Amino acid sequence: MKGSDETQARGDVRELEQRVIAMGNMVESLFADSVMALVESSPGMVPGMRAEDCRVHEQWLEIDRLCIQLLVEKQLEGEQIRFVWAAARIATDLKRAADESFRIGEALRSCVPEYPPNSKSLASVPALAALTQSMLSDAVEALVNRDAVEAGTLHLLARELTSQAAETANEITQGLTTSEIGAPVGAACLSVAQRLQRIADEVVDISNQVGHLYRRPQ
């Protein structure tokens, strides 16, 4: 009976891992849509993004339910408990990243039809989004591959993104000060830059969890 319980626990933990990976892929897709809306000025994509965000939320609820069930009902080994704890944190980080991705689309829709103006003040916003997208993609890949080394490299990108986000905010503020861009567009793009920084922060936390889980002993 004990062997059967251990096999069931391993299967449940594996299911949890697959659900977290699936959620990561869903968030990556949602963020890709937010980047497309930003680059191509397609705020009409927002309703579809809302549906994606709802699916991410449902997946997060299911992961949360499974984590609680595993911790309460199963006799888990130490490493399994550690994984369940990390999975719950990663899922929460992914949910927050999804929420911020959806709000990027909403911010753009709020300033239509003024966005996007032909302005140097906003030129760095798409580049900032692309860097954030690269970080998110790398974090999901590290999770899938159980790669602590790849996860660790994201800290370098995070520092670069923080610097770029500060420069982007400064350029937008200068554009507002000189009236190169209008207040609605400037406010929306400042919001986008802030949300991209928040997504990057969630990605760093995900990379930390992946690193702790899969780092090999020295």
General description of the model:
The chain has 218 residues and is mostly helical. The chain has one domain (2-214): Up-down Bundle (Methane Monooxygenase Hydroxylase, Chain G, domain 1), CATH 1.20.58. The chain has helices at 2-40, 46-73, 78-109, 124-145, 148-152, 154-177, 183-214. Helix 1 packs antiparallel against helix 2 (46-73), helix 1 runs parallel beside helix 3 and helix 4 (124-145) packs antiparallel against helix 6 (154-177). The radius of gyration is 20 Å and the shape is elongated. The two termini are 37 Å apart. 39% of the residues are buried.
What are the main properties of this structure?
elongated, Methane Monooxygenase Hydroxylase, Chain G, domain 1, mainly alpha, 218 residues
Present the secondary structure layout.
Blueprint: H1 2-40, H2 46-73, H3 78-109, H4 124-145, H5 148-152, H6 154-177, H7 183-214
Helix pairs in contact: 1-2, 1-3, 1-4, 2-3, 3-7, 4-6, 4-7, 6-7
